[in-house]
Structures are given as C-alpha cells and as structure tokens.
Amino acid sequence: MAAPRGRTYWIDFGLDDVEAWGEFDGRSKYRDVAAVGGRTAQEVVEDEKRREDWIRGVTNRTLVRWGWGDIANAAALGRRLSAFGVRPR
C-alpha cells in the first residue's frame, strides 16, 4: 500500500470479505535492535501506531492484531476478531 513520504506499508492479512486488516504481532520487532534499525522499542511502537492510524484512516477498515495465543485454534481467533467487531462468514 502506498504510504506517506514514499513509503510502502505491508499488511499481513487482508480480510476483504469483512473489510478488515489483520496483523500478526510478533514480539521480536520490539526486542531485536538489528531488526528495527537501531530504533528503541518506544520508537518502534510509536512508528507502528502512526502506521496503523494512517492505514485505518485511509482505508476505513478495522485493523486487528493477534499473537500466538490468539491463533491456538479457530475459536480463539474468532473470539479475537469478534472483540473488534469483525465477524468472518
């Protein structure tokens, strides 16, 4: 997705049938200095927040984050999505 200042934003999952986005939230990007280009964990979180706000604002879609515990089974993921008002068919 084309983004501000010539950037490209990648989204993990497009849930097009319910007009939502899904992001798997791996923890390593907040801990691994090499993976985040020398930014602090706080800077990574702030950048991620700005990115998500832009995506939601431009697309008018809900963006849901989930982690390992949320994908233990289909019911767990369903509960996570439902908590954000996303109800896949």
Note down, in words, how this protein is organized.
- The protein has a 3-stranded mixed β-sheet with strand order 1-2-3, sandwiched between helices.
- It has 3 helices and 3 strands.
- It has 89 residues and is of the alpha+beta class.
- The model has no long low-confidence stretch (mean pLDDT 86).
- The chain starts with 12 loop residues before the first strand and ends in a 6-residue tail after the last helix.
- It is flat, with a radius of gyration of 14 Å.
- 37% of the residues lie in helices and 15% in strands.
- A hairpin with a 4-residue loop joins strand 1 and strand 2.
- The chain has one domain.
The fraction of residues in strands falls at: 5-15%
User: How many individual domains?
Assistant: 1
Radius of gyration over all CA atoms, rounded: 14 Å
Q: Catalogue the unreliable spans.
A: none
Helix content: 25-40%
- Report on the biggest sheet: 3 strands, mixed
SSE-based structural type: alpha+beta
* Overall geometric form: flat
| Cα distance spanning the termini | 25 Å
Count of DSSP E strands?
3
- Going across the biggest sheet, name each strand in turn: 1-2-3
